[in-house]
Write a structure and sequence with these properties.
381 residues; alpha+beta; BirA Bifunctional Protein, domain 2; nine-stranded mixed beta sheet; three-stranded antiparallel beta sheet; 12 strands
Length: 381
């Protein structure tokens, strides 16, 4: 449930928020604010996975489907697409967000974060991660574990397999569950549906032999012969034929999803110190014939982070980690207490494709958000 803030706790929270703002502004970031209620479609289009299930959605008096803000990034991108300011942009934000907990109850907490828009590659990554380290130090966090992954690894496989964009979004959002062997219920139901469709092997082979156009003509001819005269129109029969052919062709998608799931499960144990993870990861990518570029970029970034973090954080890799949001497109990261990785201080990642997908100009972007309540708890422990 949302909590009350009595004077002593409120002063502690405001003092921490003021220190974070000072760090952000010293780095050249300007503050913005966005509405706490937005059109639900802004979040539902690109969240996927658990984040989608934890978004509070309601219908207002005029019938519009709205959402209480579950995070800031999507609203920041919406603001960018509407106002079209000059790039690069360095913005920060601060305020409450609302989500549904695993038990379905509403929970509220405060986020402080930054977005760097218009700068791509390792320079932007290093700037944001360096700012994250300074913000954690200012919050009184004496040491932290910084977990890294590059979603280009799994995206490379999904693109090679030819998975659709919605399935790719959902798979990336649920990567941690899938890698751990716990398929999200929606994905399991879809796999079951594909497996059921896969039982029509003989008919699928016949249709494959005559090609896509021939298969459509053949199925349509059969339907016309068995349809009741005058009761089913030509367009209805064509729609039925198209649905049937698609169902028979789902076997390729089933094979692709099974391959992607197997690959994700092989990513799961690839976690730990950089020097231990890289050799096994390189071999796995080679086994699947994947571009090693994302792994190379991770290696280069970890080399730079030694000086940037100045000993404040320990860098580890976790190649089955995704942060549960479907819009991330490259580097993802998360900071936690070394002795208690479940206390997540904050995290973020790259979302280079999100701005264009929401109607803005193509632009690289990266950001992070910190959970203020977790910072207060960790600094006081």
């Amino acid at each position: 449930m949302p909590r009350d803030w009595l004077p002593a706790d409120f002063r502690r929270r405001r003092a921490l928020e003021d220190r974070l703002v000072a760090v952000f502004e010293a780095a050249g970031y300007a503050g913005i604010d966005v509405p706490i209620v937005e059109p639900a479609d802004l979040y539902l289009r690109k969240f996927g996975g658990q984040a989608l299930a934890r978004t509070v959605v309601f219908v207002d008096g005029s019938g519009r489907q709205l959402s209480v803000r579950p995070e800031f990034t999507a609203s920041v991108v919406r603001l960018l697409t509407e106002r079209s300011p000059a790039l690069p942009l360095r913005w920060y934000y601060l305020g409450p967000v609302v989500r549904l907990g695993p038990d379905g109850r509403v929970t509220e907490f405060h986020q402080a974060g930054v977005e760097l828009i218009g700068i791509s590659g390792p320079d932007g990554d290093a700037e944001v991660l360096g700012l994250l380290g300074r913000a954690l130090a200012e919050a009184g966090i004496r040491g932290f574990e910084l977990k890294l992954n590059h979603l280009g690894i799994i995206q490379g496989l999904l693109a090679k397999l030819g998975l659709s964009e919605p399935l790719t979004t959902f798979f990336i959002a649920g990567l941690e569950e899938i890698a751990a062997g716990n398929l999200p219920p929606e994905l399991q139901r879809y796999l079951d549906e594909l497996a059921e469709a896969d039982e029509s092997d003989g008919l699928r082979e016949v249709l494959a032999a005559v090609g896509p156009d021939g298969a459509r003509r053949l199925v349509l001819s059969v339907l016309e012969n068995i349809a009741a005269p005058g009761r089913t129109g030509r367009r209805d029969l064509e729609a039925i034929a198209d649905r049937l052919i698609r169902r028979l062709n789902l076997s390729d998608e089933l094979t692709a999803l099974r391959t992607a799931t197997d690959f994700a499960r092989q990513l799961n144990p690839l976690r730990g110190p950089v020097h231990e993870v890289f050799p096994e990861a390189e071999q796995l990518l080679a086994d699947f014939g994947l571009d090693p570029g994302p792994l190379t970029r991770l290696r280069e970034l970890t080399t730079r982070l030694g000086g940037i973090l100045a000993g404040r954080g320990e860098v580890v890799l976790d190649l089955g980690f995704s942060r549960g949001l479907g819009y991330y497109s490259g580097l993802v990261f998360e900071a936690a207490l070394p002795g208690d990785p479940e206390v997540r201080l904050g995290g973020g990642g790259r979302y280079d494709g999100l701005i264009a997908e929401l109607g803005g100009p193509p632009a690289p972007a990266i950001g992070f958000r910190l959970t203020v309540e977790n910072l207060l708890s960790a600094a006081g422990s």
